[in-house]
Write a structure and sequence with these properties.
The structure is a homodimer of 255-residue chains. Chain A has nine helices and eight strands. With 255 residues, chain A is α/β, with parallel strands linked by helices. Chains A and B meet through α5, α6, α7, α8 and α9 of A and α5, α6, α7, α8 and α9 of B.
């Protein structure tokens, strides 16, 4: 299986690494950012182009791993020979690809991928395609890259993308706010890391609903007041504290 | 080292297990809830009392592991012989113990402990004491239980407790809301677990601030609108979405 990767960011880098690790070959990395593309091409031992030249027409699959709003503009560069074309976006529609090939689809890694981190985490792939043959091909590729492969429509993928914003972006923001508070208060954020790891890890065994603890869950008004006094000089933390506390209380009421 | 544990909840259970695992001996579990106390006493192979009888006066340390607002009421039962007395609370003052012994302090496990989970996670202990001798004793106990032992005043401990609410209670609530949304939308929450694990795990190497990604970080207004449409029937999720998004944007501006 031979691929051309269009893009040179985090997802392009991770997919490229994973692809060759699992026995595939990357023929070419194509990116507007020639500097990034060259760095990735060295890792993947392949050719490179900056969208001004020709994209290799001999690949089995063209993987478009660019920002959502750049997908349409790079499509004009993809060889018009009905090879398989996929994009890797959680939010962009499969229909963006309908004029580029007769065989197209989605290969969306539902994971936060950062090229500066070398270890490859478990990556669920959500896939979709415009016909059965393309779907079989994408399923074959995804199954080589991961043991978690699920077919998902545009609508299902968009919903998982929203949920991912909650468990990744918002969760990480809570970590950031806690770290900011610790730095300002001269206390050691590292002491919280075992708690952070455990809070996530135990979801392997238990539903988060059954794991909710703390003053909001107990409706412990005395502790709310103490906490809000401690946060008095941190309006941004205070706002999150109040919103999350009320949200937990409303959730309690639904039980 | 011989201990009496007062309490039979999650923290009492975990500390008891850890204490005997590290070569200590628990003489007695004392709890208002005799049923819970008996279950724990079986695990720890020790005596049991429901606060109506006598607490064993021969222990080296009395560990008070009850809810914050129950600490004062159980103190009247502790033998008045100046043995070491500690409580395990993140929010309650060390001064609660000043009339019970000449040697007292804090042994606070900064971890979320659930007795139904058998594996023991890494547990940082925050310790404090009323005199140098008691502090040395508590440090000795804590160092047998964990490699992460830090001295912290009431004020430092309270601040870490607030930060812990953010990274544990609020984070877990985001997981719960995402799970709720997935259940209602008939999509598979398990697909998000690798992302949840990775979001936490990479804090081992990188600061959360450098790991922030997503539409709020990019100020991607088109995606906000799409996400808010998807969440239109979920007022509680929508409220969290707006607050967290605004909070991330304000945090961006501080950079």
């Amino acid at each position: 299986m031979q691929a051309v990767i269009i893009g040179s960011g985090n997802v392009a880098t991770f997919l490229g690494r994973l692809f060759i690790q699992k026995g595939g070959k990357v023929l070419q990395v194509v990116s507007r950012n020639l500097n990034h593309a060259q760095k990735l091409a060295v890792q993947l031992n392949c050719n490179v182009d900056d969208l001004s030249g020709t994209i290799d027409p001999s690949a089995d699959v063209y993987i478009i791993a660019v920002a959502d709003d750049a997908i349409e503009s790079v499509l004009t560069h993809v060889p018009n020979n009905n090879k398989l074309v996929v994009h890797v976006s959680g939010a962009a529609s499969i229909n963006l690809l309908k004029n580029v090939s007769n065989n197209y689809g989605i290969l969306y890694p539902l994971q936060s991928l950062r090229k500066e981190i070398d270890t490859i985490p478990e990556i669920p792939f959500l896939i979709d395609a415009n016909n059965a043959e393309a779907l079989a091909q994408i399923k074959d590729i995804a199954s080589k890259l991961s043991t978690m492969v699920h077919i998902a429509t545009d609508e299902e993928r968009k919903r998982l993308h929203v949920a991912a914003v909650f468990v990744n972006n918002f969760t990480n923001h809570l970590y950031s706010q806690a770290a900011y508070f610790c730095e300002k208060e001269n206390i050691n954020f590292n002491l919280l890391k075992p708690l952070i790891f455990e809070t996530a890890a135990r979801l392997a065994h238990l539903h988060p609903r059954t794991l909710q603890t703390g003053p909001a869950k107990r409706n412990d008004i005395k502790t709310f007041q103490q906490h809000q006094e401690i946060l008095a000089n941190y309006p941004s933390l205070l706002e999150l504290y109040k919103t999350c506390t009320e949200s937990i209380q409303q959730f309690n009421d639904k039980e």
